[in-house]
Amino acid sequence: MRYNYSIVRVWQLPVEELLAGGIATLPLAPIADVPESDLPRVISRMRERIEAEPKDEQQDLWASTYFPMGAKYPGSLTNQLLKGIGTVFESSTLTKPSKKGVAQGELSGRLQQARGSLLTLEARLGA
């Protein structure tokens, strides 16, 4: 068997391509080739599309947005841009846990959920 594939560097893709593409790739838009000053507009456009999805998928899409953004941008910026979305990143367990064991368990569960979301997106993309 032979598989042909190419590597796509998301950070080099035009953000408009991801904003106009399929819902599965939408969470990658904030880490595409987009100036930091344009992020509020990108998040606003994403919100319009994501709100049209079923509620359970909305949370998965936002979680799948949050974690890659955290790898590219400071946590404070990510939290500010996604404030009010109402999902995993607004949890106090991610910023100031009051009981270490409980917070770690909750964070672990949320990370597993995000990984599952990314695997679902990968499956949708046919990777």
Give the helix/strand layout:
Blueprint: H1 15-20, H2 39-50, H3 55-72, H4 75-81, H5 100-125
Helix pairs in contact: 3-5
Please describe the structure with a list of short key phrases separated by commas or semicolons:
127 residues, mainly alpha, 5 helices, 0% strand
Q: Can you summarize this structure?
A:
The chain has 127 residues and is an all-alpha fold. It contains 5 helices and no strands. The chain has helices spanning 15-20, 39-50, 55-72, 75-81, 100-125.
Structure characterization notes:
- Mean pLDDT is 83; it is low at 89-97.
- 54% of the residues lie in helices and 0% in strands.
- The protein is globular and about 45 Å long.
- The protein is built from 5 helices and no strands.
- The chain has 127 residues and is mostly helical.
- Helix 3 (55-72) crosses helix 5 (100-125).
- The chain has helices at 15-20, 39-50, 55-72, 75-81, 100-125.
- 23% of the residues are buried.
- The two termini are 16 Å apart.
- The H/E string reads HHHHH
As a percent range, the share of strand residues is under 5%
Helix content: 40-55%
**How would you sum up the major sheet?**
none
Q: For the residues shown, what is the average pLDDT?
A: 83
Rg (C-alpha, Å): 15 Å
What's the count of strands?
0
Judged by helices, strands and strand pairing, the structural class is mainly alpha
Unreliable sequence segments? 89-97
By DSSP (H or I, 4+ residues per run), the number of helices equals 5
Distance between the termini: 16 Å
> Based on CA inertia axes, which overall geometry fits?
globular
